[in-house]
Each structure stands twice: as C-alpha cells, then as structure tokens.
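User: structure tokens for Cupin domain-containing protein, please.
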Amino acid sequence: MRTTEVTNDYGRSSRLADPAAAGAYLFAEHTIEAGRATPFGSHPRDHRSFVVIAGRVRLETPHDDEPPRTYGSLGGWHALPGCVHRIVNAGAEPAVLVEAGSVLGETVAGAGLRAVPCHCPDVSDYTVHKPWGDEVWYTRNLPDVPYALKRIRMTEGHQSSLQSHRRKLETNYVIEGEATVLSGATAPDDLDAVIDVGGLTTTVHRPRSGWTNPPNDLHRVIARTDYTSIEVSTPELDDVIRWQDDAGRGHGRIESEHAGGRS
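Assistant: Done. Predicted tokens:
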C-alpha cells in the first residue's frame, strides 16, 4: 500500500487505496489534531462512511434536528448524499478515522454548500461469525451502494481460507496487531486445481499498513497476533471461492455464519 500524506488546516490526510482501486471506491485516513475540526462539507452524489480508529470525535451538522454525536474507537456513521457535516476532535489527543465511500462526484465545501435537512445514521453492527474470528459489516444498513465497509478481527494462530474473488476488489488496512498475507498469483479456471501455497508471495503487515487484492488474486491472511483491520471493497461480499479452508467450508455465503447478525 502506497499512501500520499497531505497536511491541512485540521491535521493531515492520506489516501489508502492502491491505484488498482482507482474509480472503484475511496479509502482515506484523517488525523484531526486536538482542538481542530474539519471544514463543513458534503458529497452531493456520494455516500461516505467514517469509522474512528483512535481518539474521540464529534459529528456536527448545521441542522437543529441533528444534534451533535460523539464517537470513540470503532464507532462511526454514514454521511448520505448531500449531508453537510464536519468532524471535531472531542479529546485531548489527536483523533484518527478512516473514510470510505463511492466516487461518483466531487466534495463541496465553503461557498458552494447548500444546507439541506438530512440524517447521518450510525454504521451497522451486523456481525458475521467466522471460524477464525468475526466481521462487522458496517454498510449493511446502506442499500444499493457501490462499496462495502467492514471491520475484521482474527484470533492469533488462525488463518482465513485460501481464496479468490471473481469480481470483488478489496483493500485492507491493519489498525491493531500483525498479519501475514499470502498473495501474488492468479486463481486457475479449474476449481478442482491444487494450489501450491509455497509459491505465493508473503508480506507482513502491522498497524497503519495494508494491501489490495484485485479480482482473481489468490490470497490468505494469517494472524501473527490477534489483529483487527478495516476493509473497503466493491459490494460483492458473497463472492468467495475457497481453494483451501481449515473448517472445510465451501464457496460463497455460509448461512450459519450469519445467524444472529443484526442490522
């Protein structure tokens, strides 16, 4: 993952998505210094989702019917198209959050803003239980959007399936712990093919680093410690081909993993 950091009036921002994801989704990290706030802004054509990964922030809108709300680690909200809002550091230390979303239009700020009534819903807490940990599908409560955002937790010593996706493109960003990622080979057309895992490229990712898996890229994640990442992707969350799996799972959606999930 290559990032370009930009300093601004409230702190700094970095784009996290690799060039391979250009045009598919936005993925960025923002640091807001103590006592600072982003300017009011909106995205007239785009949905955006924000999740705090360090510190505390306060979400503010110019509307009396949308009172300020404060969020801590792994809390967040969605900014619906046209919603005018800003983010204020609500603590004594720098606050860090990630932003994901569609990329259909431009950001509007300053004189171009038109404050229309809107609501910024909290992210979903819909939880999918995995043999190796769990996922929270933050965008489960946003219908028909061209991106998905989730939090992934994996327990030390466990690993994901060796998998690929026919259409899904995804970017992961580690926020806690360490993970080994195997990748770098194209999935074969034959679903019965035997994959030589030893031929894959191995990389280690620690907090504030990440990777992108394009469609048809073979990959597996191994938890060196308990680890947590944030993943943004195109919306095909059930598009999974499992070439090897410690729990013997098949391809696609596993209904039992969704038992008890909440929107």
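User: Anything notable?

Assistant: DSSP finds no helices and 22 strands in the chain.
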